[in-house]
Amino acid sequence: MTPYFRHVVLRASAPLAQEAWWAAQPLHTDLDLFLAAHLASPHSARRPLVVLGHPGAGKSLLTRVLAARLPVATYTAIWVPLRHVKADTQIHHQIEEALYTTTNGRVSWPALVEETADDTVRVVILDGLDELIQASGASQSRYLQEIEQFQEREMILGKPVAVIVTSRVVVADRVEIPDGSSVIKLEDFTDVQVNQWLQVWNATNRGTEGFRPLRPAHAIALPALARQPLLLLMLALYTADAQVPDLTEMRSSADLYGKLVDNFIRREIIKDAETPAGRGINVAKAVAPRRFQLAIAAFAMFNRGRQYVTEPELQQDLESLLGSAPQERRSFAEPLNHAAKMVGQFFFVHAPSADDGNDARGGLHRTYEFLHATFGEYLIAAAVMGLLRRLAERRAQERDEQAPYLEVLDDAKLCGLLSHQVLAGRASILDLAAEHAHHLRGEDLSGICAVIDELLRDIRTRTLTTTVRPEQGALPYDPSRNDASTRLAMYSCNLVALRLMLADTSGVPISCFADLSAWRFLVSLWRGCFDEDSWRAVMVLMTTEPTGPELAAPAPVLKLRGRDADGAEHDQRFYGFQDARLFADYDGLAIMRGALASWGGRSPANATDAEIHSRLLQFHHTANDDVPFEFDEARPLWADLSPPTRRLLLTALADEAPVLPLDTVRSFDDVLGELTDPRLLLPLAGIAAAHPAMIATLLPVMQRMAHRVHRRVGLAAAAALVGAAQLTTQQDEAAALRRAAAEIRI
Length: 746
What we know:
- The chain is α/β, with parallel strands linked by helices.
- The chain has 33 helices and 14 strands.
- The chain starts with a strand and ends with a helix.
């Protein structure tokens, strides 16, 4: 099923991660023709083609099909899965890695180029830029710029190469895409495409015993799931089993993933129960422990900032969180390793060989990763909500029993799992947690929110350890090796994010869990401990708004920040605005807004521009005698100044012109003669009024400007010149000023 798509040629910075922006772009249905035309164009060898899509949209499958369909007589396609190459190497080294794996070291990139130079077009497909970013933890903001440079070098050598890069939409704003690059976004299936897909699926499998078809109407009733190709396949596979609940009972993505995961776990347990060693297993009670084991695998990847985990790492995490597994085997066919036994059974995880180190026996470590990242995200969300619910139930039980005092909440396991990465960086985890909470009873949800508030109120006295189990000799759980301050920052931030996601649209008064001083302590802790990506993820997720009448006592409310927010204040250049909002520093926010207004909505062109601008603002808003401004020093820097700073400088020059020497004003002679901005008419009239000798230079400029301003502005400029004529004792100067006033009066 060929997906529909939207296409743009990037000409300037565009909000490629915003759904609303993409929805306004033209929709196309001829993806095959587009790709054929692109690869036949010389443009394909100059800039990369960027293919964006949501998880499960079919990006990887599209590139595999494209590589297979390209005629071998005219194209040489190299498919490079970026999650399996080193992130910090050059493009050609990453291609070399993929070729080495594919051909067992038989073909190198230079050799391939030489052999195909005259016969075919080389097409390099770099699949999964988002996974390269997330798995490596490295900044790849200039990765596409490096691809463009790689293509340029190959072109100069006479060996042109076309490059196609795939990525999730969500990270599109974290990379710099070269201007002129073609960018396409794969669209979700339409209802018609869902219907067509299911017709083929149902017809192909109708003869299978016990097969239950998926009705198009049932699938279309879940558009958020059915329109994603991979999730549609999951729906079809789930529905095919006539023994599971009907699809119409599902209410959300979390519900779907929960049923998919639990259904497969149940199948595996039933298989175990049919063996002699598994007799007596309570299938219903065994599902939750198995699900938590899978959640540990998901946390093992997430807490290390990767999309995969090695077998020794997973084994260590399982032992740290669950205790040591029995080492004896019942048969030689049974894995000795707890991790291999648990994760190897689960069909949502695959274990490619990875050359990431040798184990004690001299073999390569196996690595585990989910076939789709959303399964891991669901397991994390479900585990976190389960732990919070148990804490809330424990607290409710104590109150029901009218205990004389409430014990300190034992959140060691929750803290251990949530103190290594920020959930804000994986917003889908928070979305799934919110969906999970949506199905809870009101009192259960209120209890969870109360527990989070209690944990946050006590966060400053929290003692962090790496041991999450009370038994003596328990292994530490420390996948990230974060220091204590960073772990406290991570844990508190994740609790706040969860509290916010469980609230309604009115937000959460910060007073529920902290006073203003404690809140600012938390935000300062986050700012000091997080790397730039984590901090920006937090600022993108949440913000505060004042509710009190006084800025000094704002009574802030924590709210979700609009993910499609736009405008100057949401540009990456203005993260300071969101920084101040999150800190609930509304005085500082007002000051920054004033500064932004003085820049005309722009940022400084360079350090010199910023320095001159700030000095001019200080000069303008204080007593001029106290803070003198050296115009002679500023004049040589004119070329380095931005338009707002130039206007500010000329306004200051006009204000000070009566007390400045004529030579200082004349040093701006060539600059003044080239001005075109009509907003400078009044300052120029002020300079002419103070120094009539400048009229010959300024009059032609003022005449041009006078025709582009409101009549009142022209009259005000003329009035300034007439006023100066009345004050001067020099007849020739007075006459020149009156003639100039007549010329610019409209």
